[in-house]
Every structure is written in structure tokens, then in C-alpha cells.
């Protein structure tokens, strides 16, 4: 599996890039998937995924194979070294962030603690 690497070591897998590109093409309005870390969730922090056409000057951008991911500078330190993947298994389909900084997470896969 090939990944694109940006500053702070955040990577985007081939599967995630392909899925994001398909979602953006189908949506027709959004130009990127924004991933943010916010307070809340079962474990203290949670990931938020939003389609957007708004890019801030200080956003970190991962662009690859027709996919664009935006991460705001406040969320980036919480995601340093993470891998963004797309998983399609018996339980369902979802984007997953494999975060080496997370010390715990809950079963939903979007909530974590550091």
C-alpha cells in the first residue's frame, strides 16, 4: 500500500485517496475532505469529517490522485504521524485514522484520548 506523506508525518493510503476522489466527484460541489480533531466523544477527542469547498490559507493539504484532504493547524499536532485509510469490511465502510499518539479509543473508531 502506497501512501502520500506531508509535514508532521500524516499519510493518506491509496484506498482512502480513491474513495475521497469518488466522493468529491459524485458530490460535484465539494473540493476536499476536511478532517478535524475536536473535544468530545467517548474518549475525550473525536475526529470530524466534512466535505468542503473552503480552504484556509493555513490548512495543511494532502493532495493525491484527485483527492484533497484539509487539516487545520490546531488539529494537526493531535494527528502527527497518523495514517488516514478507508476500510470496507463486514461491519461497514468508514474512514479510519490510525493515530500513534492515541493512548485509548472507543469502539466507534472516531473517539480517542491522548
TrEMBL record:
It holds the Pfam family Fe-S_biosyn. One of its GO terms (molecular function) is 2 iron, 2 sulfur cluster binding. Residues 10-109 form the Core domain. SUPFAM superfamilies: HesB-like domain. PROSITE patterns: HESB (PS01152). One of its GO terms (biological process) is iron-sulfur cluster assembly. InterPro entries: ATAP, ATAP_core_dom, FeS_cluster_insertion_CS, HesB-like_dom_sf. PANTHER family: IRON-SULFUR CLUSTER ASSEMBLY 2 HOMOLOG, MITOCHONDRIAL. This is Iron-sulfur cluster assembly accessory protein. It comes from Oharaeibacter diazotrophicus. The lineage of its organism: Bacteria, Pseudomonadati, Pseudomonadota, Alphaproteobacteria, Hyphomicrobiales.
Amino acid at each position: 500500500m502506497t501512501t502520500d506523506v506531508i509535514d508532521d508525518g500524516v499519510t493518506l493510503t491509496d484506498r482512502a485517496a480513491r474513495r475521497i476522489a469518488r466522493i468529491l466527484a459524485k458530490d460535484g460541489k465539494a473540493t476536499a475532505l476536511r478532517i478535524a480533531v475536536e473535544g468530545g466523544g467517548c474518549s475525550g477527542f473525536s475526529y470530524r469529517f466534512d466535505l468542503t469547498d473552503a480552504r484556509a490559507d493555513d490548512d495543511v493539504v494532502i493532495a493525491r490522485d484527485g483527492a484533497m484532504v484539509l487539516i487545520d493547524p490546531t488539529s494537526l499536532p493531535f494527528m502527527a504521524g497518523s495514517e488516514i485509510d478507508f476500510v470496507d469490511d463486514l461491519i461497514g465502510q468508514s474512514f479510519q485514522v490510525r493515530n500513534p499518539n492515541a493512548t485509548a479509543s472507543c469502539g466507534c473508531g472516531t473517539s480517542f484520548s491522548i
